[in-house]
Design goal:
Elements lengths: L3 E5 L4 H10 L5 E5 L15 H16 L3 E10 L25 H11 L9 E11 L8 E11 L15 E3 L4 E2 L5 H7 L1 H12 L3
Parallel strand pairs: 1-2, 1-3
Antiparallel strand pairs: 3-4, 4-5, 5-6, 6-7
Helix pairs in contact: 4-5
C-alpha cells in the first residue's frame, strides 16, 4: 500500500525538514508545493490561523491533494506583538528594497529593540498548523503551539532558522539555535503543534 501524499504548503526548507521528521511514523508522504510548481498563496489573513488555512486551501486546490500548512511567527511584547504574522518578511515591511532573509530580519529586530532593556524584551513564538482534506474542507484541522522566551542583544548558535539565534530560553540558558533538532522539536511552538497533530491526525 502506497503512502498518502500530502502537499506541504511551504517552501521553507527548515519547516519541511521538521515536519517530515515529525510525521515519520505516519503512513504519509509530505511533498513540498514547489514540486508541483505551486506559487505561494497571498497571505491576506489577519491571524496565524487565517493565513495557515489560506495556504492549505491554496495548495490543495492547485494539486488536488490533502494539504498541510504552517503559519508561524514571533511576537515581541515591546513591539506590540510585531513582527507577528509578518515575521518572514519583516525586513521589507517599511519599503526596504530587496527580498527578505533571516539575516535582514534579525538585524531589523535588533535595531527595533536597541533601546529596550533586557527585562522588557519578552517574546514568544506562535505556530499554527492547518490540515485540509480537500480545498473546500469545511472543517480544517487546526493545531497550535506557543513558546515563551526573550530576545537577546546578539546572535548566538548555528542551528535552527529564522529568529532562533536571538530567541533565548531562560530555563535552558541558551538560544533556540543552540538546541539540537531533537531538543527543539520536543519543546518548541512547532513541536507542540505537531504533537497535537499526531494525536488527532486522521486521514
Amino acid at each position: 500500500m502506497s503512502k498518502q501524499k500530502i502537499v506541504l504548503a511551504s517552501g521553507n526548507k527548515g519547516k519541511l525538514a521538521e515536519l517530515q521528521n515529525a510525521l515519520d511514523g505516519f503512513d504519509v508522504e509530505l511533498v513540498p508545493q514547489s514540486e508541483f510548481n505551486v506559487s505561494d498563496a497571498d497571505e491576506t489573513g489577519l491571524s496565524f490561523i487565517e493565513n495557515a488555512i489560506l495556504k492549505a486551501r491554496h495548495a490543495s486546490l492547485a494539486t488536488g491533494l490533502p494539504a498541510l500548512a504552517d503559519d508561524s511567527g514571533l511576537a515581541v511584547d515591546a513591539l506590540n506583538g510585531a513582527p507577528g504574522i509578518y515575521s518572514a518578511r519583516y525586513c521589507t515591511m517599511d519599503g526596504e528594497a530587496g527580498s527578505a532573509s533571516d539575516e535582514k530580519n534579525n538585524l531589523k529586530l535588533l535595531n527595533a529593540l536597541k533601546n529596550v532593556h533586557a527585562e522588557n524584551r519578552t517574546a514568544r513564538f506562535h505556530c499554527v498548523l492547518a490540515y485540509v482534506r480537500h480545498a473546500k474542507d469545511p472543517n480544517p484541522l487546526i493545531c497550535q503551539g506557543s513558546w515563551e522566551g526573550s530576545i537577546q542583544e546578539s546572535l548566538d548558535g548555528q542551528g535552527g532558522f529564522g529568529y532562533d539565534p536571538l530567541f533565548f530560553i531562560e530555563e535552558l540558558n541558551c538560544t533556540s539555535a543552540q538546541l539540537s533538532k531533537q531538543e527543539k522539536n520536543q519543546i518548541s511552538h512547532r513541536g507542540q503543534a505537531i504533537a497535537q497533530l499526531k494525536t488527532v491526525f486522521r486521514l
